Amino acid sequence: MKDFPIPVVAVGPGSQPDEDEALQYLPLPASMMTFALPVLNEEADPALMAAACSVVEQLRDKMEAMPLGSPTIPVIELQEMDTEVVRLLNQTMGEGEVSISVRGSSAYRIQETVFAGVWRLHEFAADGRLVRDAIMACAIPPIVTQWAREDVSLDCTMPHKTPGIMNALSVLTEIVGKARAYKAGDAAHVVNLTLLPMSPEDMECLPLTLGVGAVTILSRGYGNCRITSTRLPNVWWVQYFNSMDTLILNTLEVSDVPEVAQASREDYEDSIERLGEWLQVMQEPERLDI
């Protein structure tokens, strides 16, 4: 995934604590997501394992034929597949760093696997029925950007300045202007609220004005990154929390989808190689060091 953005810290005269003051440090992260090959299910039926390996092999071959950024993305539909094969795929492919929830006329639950850029997508009808089950390989599933743009509007009504509001109106003016000028593929524009003097009234005004969109993304690594779409197109809340769930970086970002949630080209290519290792382990268990 992408590098963790570190806010600018002032240095120089007047920026250092007095010698008598105790230095304050942010708590260190408790854990970090790392890649490990799937655990071999030695009790799995050989026929089910062969079917699961066939799916992974198809996926790996499609990813090799369709590099990241290709017009067509690799997709394998699982809805009609044997439920035991799907269960084995879920068990062995595991869960990665990014989880996505999409709320609309249909509901979606999207989970990255341990292979970065390889996603499990479930679509549910309004009555809760599973209507689609798929594996796809891409930076982020297209349904995320599609639904983030549903029921949004550039007609943002600016609030009146009320007592306590300091910088909310200037932030909103900047964000709305950038959103109106934004074109797909443009570089992200980020407003770091952590570095601005923001009053409690400012922090109440911003979400009330921008609203809450259909997409929520959680990226786990060092602590958590929570990303939420707004009712303003291409505008996202991006908030970083340390391992004690303390907010340490709070930003508004104008982009298609924040990069921290997306798999990079290096991730994608690495996953192709790791899927080959997965197949080697599953097809030839005698190679495992017991």
Sum up the structure in keywords.
alpha+beta, 290 residues, 6 helices, Ribosomal Protein S8, Chain: A, domain 1, ten-stranded antiparallel beta sheet, 2 domains, single chain, disordered C terminus, elongated
Structurally, the number of domains stands at 2
**Number of H/I helices:** 6
What would CATH call the homologous superfamily of the largest domain?
A: HupH hydrogenase expression protein, C-terminal domain
* Helix-and-strand structural type: alpha+beta
Which CATH C-level class of the largest domain is it?
Answer: Alpha Beta
CATH architecture of the largest domain: 2-Layer Sandwich
Poorly predicted runs are 1-34, 286-290
Give the helix level as a range of percent: 25-40%
Shape: elongated
Classify the beta-strand content into a percent band.
15-25%
Q: Which series of helices and strands comes N to C? A: HEHEEEEHHEHEEEEH
Query: How do the strands of the widest beta sheet line up side by side?
Result: 1-5-4-3-2-7-8-9-10-6
User: Mean pLDDT, as a whole number?
Assistant: 85
Give a structural overview.
The protein has a ten-stranded antiparallel beta sheet with strand order 1-5-4-3-2-7-8-9-10-6, sandwiched between helices. It has 290 residues and is α+β, with helices and mostly antiparallel strands. The chain has two domains: 46-139 and 264-287, 2-Layer Sandwich (Ribosomal Protein S8, Chain: A, domain 1); 148-261, Ribosomal Protein S8, Chain: A, domain 1 (2-Layer Sandwich). Helix 1 crosses helix 2, helix 1 (46-65) runs antiparallel to helix 6 (265-283) and helix 4 (168-181) runs parallel beside helix 5. Mean pLDDT is 85; it is low at 1-34 and 286-290. It is elongated and about 70 Å long. The chain has six helices and ten strands; from the N terminus they run αβαββββααβαββββα. It has helices at residues 46-65, 83-93, 142-148, 168-181, 200-210, 265-283, and strands at residues 75-77, 98-103, 107-112, 118-124, 130-137, 189-192, 215-221, 223-229, 235-241, 247-254. The longest helix has 20 residues, at 46-65. It comes from mine drainage metagenome. It holds the Pfam family HupH_C. This is HupH hydrogenase expression protein C-terminal domain-containing protein.
